[in-house]
User: Fold Transcriptional regulator from Companilactobacillus paralimentarius DSM 13238 = JCM 10415.
Amino acid sequence: MTQEQLAQKLNVSRQTISSWENNRNLPDLEMVVMIAKTFKLSLDQLILGDPTMTTKLMNDSSEVRKMRINLYVTIIMVLAGMGSFLLFKIIGSSLDGNGVLHEPFFLIPVGYLFLMMGLISGLIYLLKKLRKRN
Assistant:
């Protein structure tokens, strides 16, 4: 089977097939399943027969886990920042009998801190995702 024929069956470019053959790049798990079906091989034969493929798939699953954690951290940080601002509004401020203002002022910088950490974490997540695509 030519690279062009395989590329058409897998719905990828011929250059992608070439890069797999030359170990410049390796297919993702979904593509590995499609390749196994195309050649009527078991996944054991396809994956365990090639130590490079085994290592790549193990690294991919580890990378996905790290990216998922990064996404959760981003969401938690942004929600904590928004929660700090909301809590500041809910608590409000008051004057005591001596004319001293009481307010939870610390919630504002805490809110900004959480938002900034969430944005930085989100940017890291997006950069990793973009880098992984290329």
